[in-house]
Amino acid sequence: MTRRFLRTIRFDGTDDFVFEPAAGASEWAISGSFVFAEMDETVLVGQTRQAFANGFLSLESFGWSTFVCVSQITAARLSELESVLAQHFVDRYGAPGLQAALPAACAEIAFVEDLIADVPINTIFAVQRTMQEDGAIREQFRKIEQRISGGPIYAKAWEASHGD
Length: 164
Fold this sequence. Notes:
It is built from four helices and seven strands, in the order E-H-E-H-E-E-E-H-H-E-E. The protein has helices at about 15-20, 45-55, 75-95, 100-115, and strands at about 1-10, 30, 55-60, 65, 65-75, 125-130, 135-145.
């Protein structure tokens, strides 16, 4: 059984200059706003600010991407990603163990699935985050639906015309 999830997409090499680290192309991704949950806005500068303002977090390299695309994923692979994210919570954020981290990882995965539940495969998403005065993070997602019909799943967002 397949489900839907987000994959990073790169139109050019800009992310390599915008983010540290940048995610590669076609990596599974989530919103990643939890990374900034305990940060004071004064530390959000440079590439960290860019990741906060416009980045999706890869679950493979834990790098950042400006754009993601709705793709198909198997339930088994999604379960693996939940475990990967739970381990990341242990390794990077001090969760006391995998069992304690797994519910939070599952919630992050479920948020993405809910976000993309009613959009077609190949829909591209961008995010804009702001820090509210009370420290809460506000996310706005913009979606760009594919306009090319009949193409393969995960097709390019546009195709070059060579004047043929």
